[in-house]
Amino acid sequence: MSPIFTLHKCILSIACALLSFCINAQTPATPITFGSIDLKDLQMKTYEKDTSAEAVVLCDYGEYSYYFGNDLPKVHYKRHIRIKILKKAGFGFASQKIPFYISSDGNKSEDVSKLKAITWNLENGSLVSYTMSEEDFFEEKGSGNTYYKKFTFPQVREGSVLEFSYELESGFWYDLRSWNFQTNIPTVWSELRAEIPAYFDFKITLLSFIPLNVKETKQDSRNFIRSNIRDPYFSYRFALADAPSLKIEPYVTTIENYRSKISFELASTFFPNQGKIDYSQTWETLNETLLTNDNFGKQIKKYDEAQKIAEILKSQTKDSLSLLTAAYQYIQNSMQWDGDNRVFTSGTNLNKVAEKKIGNSAEINLMLVRLLRECGFEANPVILSTRENGFPTDLVLLDRFDFTIAHVVLNGKDLLLDATSKLTKVGQLPLRCLNDKGRLIVRKNSRWIPIPAPQTSRKVVLMEMDILPDQQLKGNVDISYLGHDAIYFKSAVLAKGKDAYLVDYKKNKPNYDFSKIAITGVDSAETMPLLKLTATVNEAYSIAGDRIYLSPMIGMGEDTNPFKTPNRSYPVEFGIPQEETFSALYKLPADYAVEELPKSESVALPNNGGRFDFRLTVLEGGFKIDSKIALKKPIYSSEEYGALREFYNRIVFKHAEKIILKKK
Questions:
Q1: Span 52-201+213-249: which CATH code?
Q2: Which CATH number among 3.40.1190.20, 3.40.50.10490, 3.10.620.30, 3.40.30.10 corresponds to the domain 283-450?
Q3: If I label 172, which of 291, 352, 488, 620 is the partner at 20 to 30 A Cα–Cα?
Q4: CA 504, CA 515: separation in Å to the nearest integer?
Q5: For this UniProt entry, which residues form the secretion signal (predicted)?
Q6: What is the pTM of this model?
Q7: pLDDT mean for each 10 residues of the chain (664 residues)
């Protein structure tokens, strides 16, 4: 048996390294001892590696081990955590809760024991401790079978050190808990040790953008089940020093994609006198499981209306693409998505789902699969992980998926369809589904289906403005949207209704007096949405003596850089390539001329990653401004972050520059 270590393909900063292997190596002492506090930790005012941190985990230490009671395996967890409070904003860490699970099967229930907690303070130069007693801890029921041990540290103030430890026994021997090296505050030292008998073969998955400081394993033996026979076990040690906080930053789909952690998947067991039992699924067995499941494959056959609908559609269309589009639009328009991301149906027969005209993602898209089959297409379901759920992995684990869509072969090419959105067209998936790849579920030729990069999303602003006296501009503005920008705009308008949307739009532009404003093209997936307005803009420029100072973007440019931190350890995920074009023609007052224009500028991102072009041109009786931002990649790596941040700095700077007009 050998441990397997895998690393997600999107992690670019480290390579997948094998653990160092040593036989009977001496185990070092635990990194902290309960009740033994370093005075320097109490004297700490700020954490030098992140001076903005409101708190810091000084040490998070865990041990996993196995023992056998009544010949049944149990997992024994130990956890010891020490947290330094640096600012009032960190007082929330004084409240802690420990999850555990209670099952109707007593052999599987979990029990928290030996819970200890102390607040350490420095008072008048002396070390003072406040120890919690048993009555300070209480239990609270969560959802399902989840319970929590909860407590709040006493006497917490800026400078306090909070320390707690506990042990937990679990009958879920086949489901070792994952270990997170990172939290939303910095961690000075995080370490996990695990002793796993050779009866269990776990695949151990390391996900980390930061190289671990310790990756070790050793082999030894001791008595587990049989008192007269020593059986082998593997002992693992993982540690990470100075882990930065996992901060929510702009353009991150889900922060869990980038948390440094280790997870365990049971591959097989080999108990004495029992032989080997495999637990890892293959894609073939997963396919069979899904296709024979009452809430997946079998449900496809329970949408009886599909045959009648298909006959009608086939009689009305002449070519394959038209027929496919008609089938897609029928499900899209007749069904309402309930907002629930699901791989499986709710258990309700699809005939009844069709009657109610509302369903989850699996129900709607399995209906689409059936209708496409009745129309003569080779159609099958695809399961995927949405962007919010995290990156898909090559591990054969059903719980890594949370959405079902439809796959069809048209003219020998793969085509992916999701009918939960009423605003997507054939060949266009909503942003939530744009997450690398999905798994085609079919008995033969099951495979990963790459999710194609979407077309560039575009926003175009066209404007004609007259510069009037009294700091006013007057003219027309047309704003159009293409691609996913069109979907966002249509969704926002339809969610509120056109009238309510326009009311809010006007409220957000208090210096505009609108004489006309209208929205068109939002009621169909096939039309381009357009916002048209005629307005007078008040206080649109400033006057100093005989000069006018005008910002020609009039509030429609980039006014702040979304990328504020100087460094970033994970990618920037826009999700789709994007373009934003602003073109405005200004007519000058008769008694003014252009004295000074901002310089034109072109900025290119490395490796053809994008471009910003900014130009101002003097015309007869006026001037013209053209600004175009093109981001050509859906994802920019952390190595590209510095260039992207500077790219936006230049955009913000140029969009803020003013034109100077002088009275003749």
A1: 2.60.40.3140
A2: 3.10.620.30
A3: 291
A4: 16
A5: 1-25
A6: 0.83
A7: 30 32 63 94 95 96 91 92 98 96 83 97 93 95 92 97 97 93 96 95 89 94 84 94 91 90 92 83 90 95 95 92 96 96 93 96 98 96 95 86 96 94 93 95 92 92 96 97 95 95 95 96 94 96 95 93 90 95 96 94 96 96 97 95 97 96 93
